C-alpha cells in the first residue's frame, strides 16, 4: 500500500487486522507509529519492531492518516478518545478495507455483508471458485485480514466478508458483486440505533460502481427495504435471494434451488444438509449460487460444489455424541436472531445460552422455544435472560460453561430418547473469552472431559 510512502500514519489497535495494516503500510514505505490500549498487546508489537507512541505525545499535524482496527468505535456512543483527537485535527480516518480499495487491485471483488451467515457464505463462494479452478483469495472480516491476502491477476477473485465496522470506514471500495444477506438488530451498542447499523451495511452498495451486481436477501423487513430502495434508485443490476418465497432471482425452498435470471429458469435438488444444516443456510446457498453464476460458472458445477461443502467450525457444528445425546457447537450465534435459527434446526434441545448482551431482548427466539426442553444460562446475561424466559420455558442458572454442559447432559440423557445439547449463546463471548472461537473450543473441551468421565458407555 504505497499511498503513504514517506508519510507518518497512526495505527490504533494491534490485533490481527492492525498488525496487517502495519505490515502493508511499512512495506509501502510509510512511517508507522502505533498504540493499543492493552499493555501486553503493545509489548508484543514492540517486540516485533512496531514504534509505540503514547497518544498524548502524538503531533497530529504530522500525521497523514489514522487507521483504527474495526473493533474500535469511531462514532458516538462510545467513540474512542484517540479517534476524537484525530478527527479534531482533521486527520483522515481510514479502515483496512479502504486501504485495500486504494491499492488498485485489478481482480474481481465479491463483498458479503449482513447480520448472520456472512462467514459461511464467504467460505462457500470461495469453495465453489476453488472447486472449478479459479484463482481466489478469501478473507476480510473472516479468516485472513484483507491486506495479508496474496495478490491475484485480472482473472482472479477476492471474496471478502465485510462487517458493519469495516464498512463505516470504507469510501472507495467497488465490489463487482455486493451481497447483503439479511439484517436484524446487532451491534447497537456500537452504532447507537438500527438505522445507523443499516446505513453502515448499505455502504457495500456504491453509487460509483455502475456495473455492480447487487445480491440482496428479501426474507426480513430491513433487507427487503434496502432491496426496494435499490430498485427505486435504478441500481444497475439486482438479484433477490430468498429461502422463504419464490422471487425473480435465486431462491431455495425445501432442498430445491430455483434460478430465475435473464428470462431463463433452472431448478435442481440440493444435498447440502451436512455442511449447511438448517433452513437459514438455504439463503446462504442461494447467495453463493448467485455470485458464482454472475462470475460465469455453470449451474451444474456450482451445485456439485455446494453439495461437497463441509461447513465451518463453531457454526451448527455437530461434533460429538455421548449415549443418546448429540452435542452441537453454534458459538458463532452471537445474537438472538442467529440463536433462533439454530433452535429451529432441532427438537428436544437442551439449550446453553448467555454471555455479554448485544441487544436488550431475545424475542426472536420465542417461536422456537417449543423445540427447547430446558435452558442453561451462563455469563453476564444470565439474570436478564432468566427474567425474559420465566414462564415460557424451564431454565437453570448454571453460572459457567462446564456446569452447564454437565447439567444439560445429565438432564438430557434421562428425559428423552434422543436429545441435543446446543451451545447457541445469543450473546457475544467477551465476558469470559476473547472471541466466539475460544468459547466454542471451550465447549468442545468441556464435552471431551464429560466423555472421559462417562467412560466406555460414551459413543
Q: Helical region count?
A: 15
The biggest sheet amounts to: 9 strands, mixed
Radius of gyration: 23 Å
**Shape estimate:** globular
What is the overall pLDDT average?
93
**CATH architecture verdict of the largest domain:** 3-Layer(aba) Sandwich
Strand order in the sheet with the most strands:
5-6-4-7-8-9-10-11-12
Query: How many separate structural domains?
Result: 3
How widely separated are the two ends? 53 Å
Number of strands: 18
Please state the structural category. alpha/beta
CATH class of the largest domain: Alpha Beta
Strand content: 15-25%
CATH superfamily of the largest domain: Mur-like, catalytic domain
Explain this structure to me?
- The chain has 459 residues and is of the alpha/beta class.
- The chain folds into three domains: 8-94, Rossmann fold (3-Layer(aba) Sandwich), CATH 3.40.50.720; 97-307, Mur-like, catalytic domain (UDP-N-acetylmuramoyl-L-alanine:D-glutamate ligase), CATH 3.40.1190.10; 317-457, Protein-Tyrosine Phosphatase, Chain A (Alpha-Beta Complex).
- Helix content is 33%, strand content 21%.
- The protein has 15 helices and 18 strands.
- It has helices at 16-27, 39-47, 81-88, 96-101, 118-131, 164-167, 188-191, 194-202, 221-232, 280-294, 299-307, 336-344, 382-389, 401-415, 436-454, and strands at residues 8-12, 31-35, 63-68, 108-113, 136-140, 157-161, 177-180, 213-217, 237-242, 250-253, 256-261, 264-269, 317-322, 325-329, 349-354, 372-378, 395-399, 419-423.
- A nine-stranded mixed sheet has the order 5-6-4-7-8-9-10-11-12, sandwiched between helices. The protein has a six-stranded mixed sheet with strand order 13-14-18-15-16-17, sandwiched between helices.
- The longest helix has 19 residues, at 436-454.
- The radius of gyration is 23 Å and the shape is globular.
- The chain starts with 7 loop residues before the first strand and ends in a 5-residue tail after the last helix.
